[in-house]
Amino acid sequence: MSLALPEKPTLYFIGVTTGSSSIMKVFPKWSEIMGLGAQIVGYDAPLNAPAATYRRIVKHIKENDMARGALVTTHKLDLYEASKDLFDTFDPYAKLCAEVSCISKREGKLIGHAKDPITSGLALEAFISKDHWHKTDAQVLCFGAGGAAVAISLYLSGLEKPPKKMTIVDISEERLKHLKSIHKKLEPATEFDYVLSQDSLKNDALLESQASQSLIINATGMGKDRPGSPLSDRAEFPEKAVVWELNYRGELDFYHQAKAQEAAKNLQVENGWVYFLHGWTQIIAEVFQVELTLELFKRLDEAAAS
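Structure (tokenized):
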């Protein structure tokens, strides 16, 4: 796709199907509320795109004054690997995770950030208390070992009283190895278990082995970027589980599987809307150097919901 020279302050959205994201309708409202006078431009790339695809957008942002920065979804790891030499510096999380979810500029320098450990924590705190792991025997089961899983595992294992165990399931041995290499640098109190699986029945069994009140996460992208769910329709959620579907748009098969058992199993079922809000507002604040107060966040939330 062509990259036109921006004529006004521009935030780029680097993803797979950016045009169908709610942010395309929400951002103009937010820009007005925050007084940015800015626009958002989507940059779509297929999964595991060639390195040249990522380098092109990073160079475009680096070389154009009106290109203020970007939010990166899906491609965080690949973009970092393909274009890390184009950045002047990275924040500590970007270095630790070897990924970029936010691109910003300061005094002529191009900066790569990994914001997800912060934004995932803010999202989790909206519906699950920090002492949940101290008061219960709950564990964490996360389907998907990509950037979101990395972020959530860093946030949870960094709590004063973290969950005792977190199991991460993925179809890619490479992603699991990457996640394991990050955890090795931390010496966390949480025990991590890494499971290679693309078998929904095996995933069902892992789900059913979780304790009551455990946190069950779909961080695979299934139900949005690609069809289906990591679970079969015969899967049984644990009693009183907190079920978190990270997507907020798409078919959301995993979300609907949980909703079908919500009453019978006394589940708490959450989608990715709050994650979406924190993810975007934190990055917009970073790129445009805006102080994101609680009052401003509430106004942005109300504007997006409308």
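Residues 19 and 42 are 7 Å apart (CA to CA). The mean pLDDT is 95.
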